[in-house]
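Hi R.,

Here's the chain you asked about this morning:
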Amino acid sequence: MGRPVVHFELWTNNPDKLSNFYAKTFDWKVHANRETKYNIVETGEKGGINGGINGGIMTPRQKGPWPGNMSFYIDVDDLAAYSERIVAAGGKIVTEEQQVPGMGSYVLFHDPEGRVMGLWKNAAKAE
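And the predicted structure, written out as tokens:
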């Protein structure tokens, strides 16, 4: 059995602005800790196959550039609706909906700082 992803970090020079983007677009709860300068992100329910993976948004202590831009996929029920929300919140769609036969479909987008992230819709959720 593999080891699941259980946390993520997004490194930025403007944690509050980036936190606002993700909170506004995906209804994530973000708790700013001014003492540690680390914004804790709660993405959704915990546990199970559809449980949320939580993480953090922060500015690293070392100056950039920071290695390892990261990408992960966010489970949604409507790719078009979330694509619209991304654009409205300041992001950009870089790959329109693509099908993965027998599995689902995805959209790739840039957040306001240019990270490539993905939206994922399981085939079981297709209308």
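The chain has one domain: 7-125.

Let me know if you need anything else.
M.
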